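Same chain as my last thread, 193 residues:
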Amino acid sequence: MSGATERHTIVALVQDQPGVLNRVSSLFRRRGFNIASLAVGQSEQPNLSRMTFVVEGDIATMEQVTKQLNKLIEVIKVSELVEEEIVAREVALIKVRATPTTRSEIIQLVNIFRANIVDVGPQSLIIEITSGEDKIDAMYNLLRPFGIREVMRTGRIAMARSASETRAERPRGDTPTPTKNGAEHEQTQVPYG
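reply #2:
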């Protein structure tokens, strides 16, 4: 539906150089795009990093985001991933207040969610959970009555499923465009719906 605000996952392969993250985030800020989450890490290719953005907006906003990202010389490839055809995960560390009377109940919740306790203190536990955003939100809400002391979330990382990778990252143009440094600059877009 046209004009509807949705969350979209965009993955950009970028040169691993100082200042690239700042240039990309400045582009989003100047254009008024709302980034719900941003995760950056090394890719399988030397000297290239992969950025995963979750951006809120309609189809026109997403087209503008990918167009603007492709203008940056450090950006090698941009893809919007189709929600139904990706594997998406997030990691969260949750420090929760734990007393001798509540500790066993918290441990039961951790086991139900297949999370891990990674630190134990006299007054608190640190729980690590790797899952989809909805499951992390559900666990957070169940732990909240015990007393959340601190939360750290990585933001979404995502990859096209093996069976659908040709559909989930379809090239926009016929041939890659060379960049100033001689590397191929690929532009990709995924069909909506």
